[in-house]
Amino acid sequence: MKVSEYAKHLLLAGSLEDKLLPPSRQWEEETEFTSIRMEAPGRSPKFQFSDKKVKIPRLEHLNLQSNRGLSLHHFANHELMAIELFAWALLAFPDAPRSVRNGFLKTIEEEQTHLKLYLNRMRDFGIDFGDIPLNYIFWKQLGQFKTLESFSAVMSISFEGANLDYAQIYAQVFSYFGDHLTSDIMITIFEDEVKHVKRGLRAFERSIPENGNHWDHYLSLIQFPFTPRRAKGYLYLPETRSLAGMNSAFIQSLGDYQDEYTGRVNLESVKKFGLGERILRKNRLDS
Q1: Domain extent listing, the chain
Q2: With a threshold of 0.90, does the pTM exceed it?
Q3: Are 71 and 56 in contact (CB under 8 A)?
Q4: Fewer beta carbons within 10 Å, N or C terminal of the chain?
Q5: Model confidence over 160-197: pLDDT tens digits?
């Protein structure tokens, strides 16, 4: 199988089983290098996108198993969209460096692992994938993906970067409520997301102009109404960005960024969890 054939399979397949097909260890040589930009993924009726908004449960309500299941369903949807969009990128940017394409394949494989972890744990809480309307926030950014670098800025630095915060937040809150199994899943995902952001940075940094800086280059690659607020959680954990190898000035600029959405989350209600005081890890990463 060629990489392009595999990417098409992931995008056009309707079932979860097909979207969870792992990458091969050996690939046939590509002969066509025409960019293909699909407008939407193939999905079975149960997994179609919906415009209905479903709010994720508040952190203080995760003492209830049903709310943990709802939260994991939300995260599983993100994993599935990531699988699809990294496959999309393999087709859209056929001339990307081999190292970048191999990184996309590794990321797909890890996102598939994450999705399976979420699916299995959700079922423990009585929720199956597709029981709740599925948003398409990642796919809504398709117009942003004009270049490999803009794709990396949105998907890796922004969405996966924000998940460095969210995976830590939820790992710590699940642990607070005594759900160490789910907390352990979130830590596993956190450490993989560190690697994903590192891969995205390599694609992003290769296009920084001479004498340019990371922050200005990042801003040049994203388009309003998408803003840097998408690149961090409502609680920003800069140490996680250092683990991913982000430039220190970029980390500071991202932390300083504010817009009209800043401060909308009532952080007073979650202070009891001690969030941000430490970073949970399994020591699978270099210090």
Answers
A1: 3-23+48-273
A2: yes
A3: yes
A4: C
A5: 999 999 999 999 999 999 999 999 999 999 999 999 99
